[in-house]
Each structure stands twice: as C-alpha cells, then as structure tokens.
Amino acid sequence: MPSLLAPYRVLDLTDLKGHLCGKVLAEMGADVVKIEPPGGDSARDLGPFIDDIPDRNRSLYWCAYNLSKRGITLNLETADGRDLFRRLVAKADFVLESFKPGYLDRLGLGYDSLRKIKKDIVLTSITPFGQTGPYKNYEASDLILMGMGGFMSENGYHDSPPIRMSQDQAYNHGGIYGAAASLAAHYDRVKSGEGQHIDVCIQEALALMFDPPMQEWIMNKKEGTNRVGAKMIRGKILMRLVWPCKDGFVTWRLFTGGAVGRRTHLIIDWAEEDGQHTGLKGTKWEDIDMLDITQPQLDKWDEVFSEFFMRHTKEQLVEGSLKRHMMIYPVNTIKDALAHRHLKAREFWVDVEHPELGRALRYPGPYWKVHGAPWGTRGRAPLVGEHNDEIYLKDLGLTKDELISLAEAGVI
C-alpha cells in the first residue's frame, strides 16, 4: 500500500536541531536524503554507542533520529558541492536546514535562490530563535532553550530552583513543529503551486507548552504554581500525587467534597478488605472541603495511603483499580513500556535489521495509524556516505570517475 508522502523527496541538511523533523517525514513515506559533511555529521559522535564501542556508525542517538533516511556526503563550502546541491534541489520537494540565519544566503542557496531552481520548493529552517529578532544569531543548548522558553520555570519542586527534564527535549519540539509546518506548506503548495520558507523558532515551540501557567499569570499574577515535583498545591496544602509501591511508583490523588469524595471511600474500602486498619472507615470524604484541610492532617492521612500502596505491586494496583472503577495509574519505566501489552497489541515496537551488526535493534514505531497508508521504516539510519553511488550515479548521472575525483577534492 502507498505511504502518505511516497512521491516526495526531502533533502535534510539539519544538525541535532532538526533530525526529528526529517525522521517524521521519512516515517510518512517521504524519500529523506540526509546530507552530511564529508566524514559524517557531528551527531555521530554522541553516545551512548551500540555495545559501548565508540564508532561514528554506532551512535544510538544517530540511529534513533535518522531511521528510514538515505545518506550522502556533500561539502557545501565548495563551488562543486553547491552545484551538486542545486541539482539535487531540482529533483526535491522539501529542504530542511538548521544553520545560522543567513548562512545559506551567503552560499547562494537561500530560499530566493532555491525557488528559482524549483518554484514550489518548501524550505524549512529550524533554529533556536528564528530568522529574525535580536537573538537570531545566538546558539542555544537544551538547557538554555528550556529556560528561555519558560517551560523550565514550571518544573522542579516548590522549595527549590527550577530544573529541566532529564532528557534533551527542546530540539525535538523544534523538529516536530518543523514537520507539522512543512506538511501545512505542502498542503498549500498542492492548492497554489507555490512553495514556502518555514521559519521555526525553537524558543517559541517550547513557549507553546507554557500556555496554562501563562494564563495563570495573566489572570492572577501568580507564577511557579506547578513547580511541585511529584506533588500539587491545592489551596494551602501540598498534596502527593506519586506514591511508592512494591515494585515502583503509581499515581493517585486524594479527592474530597461532593460527588468526587466517593472515590476516596473506594481506596479505604480496598485497604480494609486487605486487612489494613486505616482508622478512616467512617470518614465523610464528600463533606470535607479541600480548602479546610491542614497540612498536618493531610500528612497523617498520607501515612495510611502510603502503607496501602506499599502492600501492592503496580500491576495489582492497576488491575484492582479497574475492577473498582478507581483512578490509579502506573509510572512505567522503559522496561515496562517495552513489555506493555497495549503497545504490543498496537505493534508499536519494531525491530530494524542492522546488517553490519548481524542483528536487529528495537525501535519505537508508528505513533499514528492511517487506513490505506501505513507507517513504515525503510531501514536503519545510513552509514557515512552509504548512498553516494545511488544518488550521485543513478539520480544525477555522474560517472564513477567523476565521483572519485569529487571525493579526492573533498567535495563529497
């Protein structure tokens, strides 16, 4: 069956900031050609490495974010390299890049130049601060962007400075919005026949996640209200949300007042059935106003709930909660996610062969399903220059001798 973007080609010039953008388009069926400098992209030097063997073709980061792409090498700093790129553009539909603003213009490869080659080309630029504004030429790491996007101010604990998420996420937000914007430009191109230059600012992509706290500030001039780690602020109390159990953690919150108070009766009844003497059997949870609860009172209740959770495993708590129509959720680890029956049923995890390793590696797979247009992988991430012959000889019609000369001159 055909994929959604099967007829279209993408030239991916991005570094870390845009690798996910190309991967998303590749998973939708586009022919994504990753263009690296001779010798390979610097992302290949990022660990961890397969089997802990440092090698430019064994970076797990590279493998994860360049799945399903073909790969060639090309030096845009050379006149011959730029000429080859123009010939590639003539056969392409999208160009992805993450250079500093103005870099491609200085090489004669900016949007105005590319559209003269291909009128309907879509150029997507993914940079920390966009193509305009006083910060446009600044560089930024994940930590910097998480801070400047505002998102970090809402993470951490109520009594400590803000912290970022443990894994790099900022570039991924830029990449995913870059893919969405590219598809929107493609939709317009189909109707109008015109291309677009997409300007993705990663700081702005992160600020989109900051919307609820932003509204809290606009309306009540309060900030940092959600920085409570595994707890939440409710009135004047700090309420626990994540609870240790026998084999990890689960999430659950105390409910009081009105109809929702009955939910707390359910967990007390369950604890009593297990033989735990809670001392809370007759508590009228539906009559308690959350705003009237004191912290010492809540802490005393928490001791009871903590004992209950520690008597059970995650699976026991989830299965039991489903039977009792309660809301208890597991905090899944990576190991849990890999074995999760729902993800297995949806065929989320896929095994991709790595012939050079003599085995397959498991990857996250389709996160959407479209009838008649399946998600698919074209194979593992490319080795350095793996498809040079395929692209330069077959697509552009170069001879083998020309390819050897270009390699010797440092063009490819």
TL;DR?
The protein is of the alpha/beta class and 412 residues long. Helices cover 36% and strands 15% of the residues.
Integer-rounded radius of gyration: 27 Å
- CATH fold name of the largest domain, please? Rossmann fold
Largest sheet: 6 strands, parallel
In what order do the strands lie side by side in the largest sheet? 3-2-1-4-5-6
What are the segments in which pLDDT stays under 50 over at least 5 consecutive residues? none
* Basic shape: elongated
Report the oligomer. Answer: single chain
CATH class of the largest domain: Alpha Beta
In total, the number of strands is: 13
CATH superfamily of the largest domain: Crotonobetainyl-coa:carnitine coa-transferase, domain 1
Strand percent estimate: 5-15%
Domain module count: 2
Characteristics of this structure?
single chain, about 400 residues, alpha/beta, Rossmann fold, formyl-coa transferase, domain 3, 2 domains, 6-stranded parallel sheet, 3-stranded antiparallel sheet, 16 helices, 13 strands, about 35% helix
Report on the structure:
The protein has helices at residues 19-27, 60-65, 79-89, 103-106, 111-117, 142-148, 170-192, 202-207, 211-220, 262-273, 295-310, 314-323, 334-339, 341-345, 388-395, 400-408, and strands at residues 9-12, 31-36, 70-73, 94-97, 122-127, 196-201, 231-234, 237-240, 242-245, 248-251, 329-330, 349-354, 359-364. The chain has 412 residues and is α/β, with parallel strands linked by helices. The protein has 2 domains: 9-209 and 367-408, Rossmann fold; 241-336, formyl-coa transferase, domain 3 (2-Layer Sandwich), CATH 3.30.1540. The strands form 4 sheets. Strands 3-2-1-4-5-6 form a 6-stranded parallel beta sheet. A 3-stranded antiparallel beta sheet has the order 9-10-11. It has a two-stranded antiparallel ribbon with strand order 7-8. Helix 1 (19-27) crosses helix 7. The longest helix is centred in the middle third of the chain and has 23 residues, at 170-192. It is elongated.
